[in-house]
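Batch queue: ligand-bound targets. Current item pairs a single chain with zinc ion. No template structures supplied; prediction is de novo from sequence plus SMILES. Inputs echoed for audit trail.
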Amino acid sequence: MQLYIAGGCGDEGRNCFYVEGDRHAFILDAGTSTDGFDRVPDISTEQIHQAEYLFISHSHRDHTGAIEYLVKKGFTGPVLMSNQTYRQLHYKPQNTMILDSTAPDLELEPDFTVHWGRTGHCAGAVWFDISVEGRHVFYSGDYRENDTFYRCDAVRGLHADMAVIDAAYSRKERGDDLRRAVVERAESLMDGGHPLLMPVHHYGRGLSMGILFHKVFGEKHPVHMSPKLYDEWLRLGHRKYFVHDEVTELPFSIFQRWDEKTLEPGHIYFLTDAQLSRASSRELIEAHPDMGVLLTGSIHGYGKAQCFYRSGRAVFSLWPNHLTWQEMEDLRAANDMPLVVPFHNKKVKPESDSFVF
Ligand SMILES: [Zn+2]
Ligand SMILES: [Zn+2]
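Prediction returned. Tokens below.
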């Protein structure tokens, strides 16, 4: 079999892999780039026509932005994804196959089966273990063990002839160290009674950080959320499947809905505008020079987050919802994976664009 990297290695976003054997072919994710240019994957029309299935790991646009492009270019096969991913997508492909959580082993064809599990990255995010023509392909999607909110089915003792693994952060630390650093940075920004603004994605790390802040700070630093994120909390907070049991036992009232205007000293505000691309977000920051601004995810080429960061108005402390390089090595060591292609890392690109396995 052969794996082609159509994007996502030494790249900004655009995660997409094409796999082809003698009888079967499929695509793993179809993302666009996050550098502001929305570049589509390097995949030929012939490959698009050849592919029988498209596997989608989760809703983020660096994994889904090019689904519509593939369909327009003539992809007609089923698009496999979880129900939560389907709910979050803007473009919903007609030929969608929803993964059934009661049957995580799916036989697509006699020599083509797929097993999947939760990755702990966001609601709906899954990894795939695909067995095709007697070979095993593992695709981690965006993967995070031990998240404070989302559940992960940790991958252990798995044999894969080809493993494509999240290695987004070129760091030696592990998740716990990074989470601790975020808490310390948040605390120091609120020192002296300042409010704290946390720009986040609509779907993803916001609820994880909120839970940890609630655990660590309690009443001392109440947590408020933009309506969109607060609605996610209401939607997911007591749903067991993608969320830890201990989270579902917490009352909804531990967080408060925020009008995106009112600020109180020492309170924490999650704003669903990760890249600060809305004018209202910029005005809020400029009108409150005493408010701390803490960025915790990738700073992309669009929006004003980058400008605030460069000028020192916003500070950065990475919240882990991917694997660090060290954790990618840990995962490889905990499984039987002779050939690993690390992906989602801006700086690291394998020597070749394709691998035979
Ligand atoms: Zn993601
Ligand atoms: Zn991603």
